[in-house]
Amino acid sequence: MIYTSxxxxxxxxxxxxxxxxxxxxxxxxxxxxxxxxFGVLFAIPCLLMLLPLFEGKxxxxxxxxxxxxxxxxxxxxxxxxxxxxxxANKYGGKYCVIFEMDEEGVLHRQLxxxxxxxxxxxxxxxxxxxxxxSPGRVGQGLLVATHSSIYSSFxxxxxxxxxxxxxxxxxNGLLYHNQVYMEDEDFDFVYDYIRTRCPKVKQ
Length: 203
Description:
Radius of gyration: 21 Å
Shape: elongated
Structural class: alpha+beta
Helix content: 40-55%
Low-confidence stretches: 135-145
Number of helices: 6
Mean pLDDT: 80
């Protein structure tokens, strides 16, 4: 049975396509991801700072030796917050993404900052029309506007984690992490579609 909604379009090539515009100020998903990456990087030197405790040194000694480094780490994370909001402002507070999904996997394409949701959705509609008659020209405008992309093959997905409040489904493989966004009313469809097509994910 083909799913249809105002947001998700089923195209003649058998792919579902939709556009999502993430509010970078209200939805902290990207900020959390950046903090997680830097948090992992700084976890190792922080653990090394604690090694003297296991050698019999006092907590005061460890603090005296590491307080300046910890201050710098704190300052760095403050800069990460500031940098994130500078980037968000540069993008107009919006992160525009187009998704393509079929039986094999889901593709996440980040669109250039000047691409707005209405324009991208219009291109999806044009794309759906072109597929029947001119497949060689399909998606030309969207491909030009694509900034970066990540593809998740369902056969390689190991975890599917839903975050309904953030309109997010994390589709994780061994070496990659994909983030799939959708509107509230489409959440259940997208989640069930992905989850039931990933053989390595426990149902």
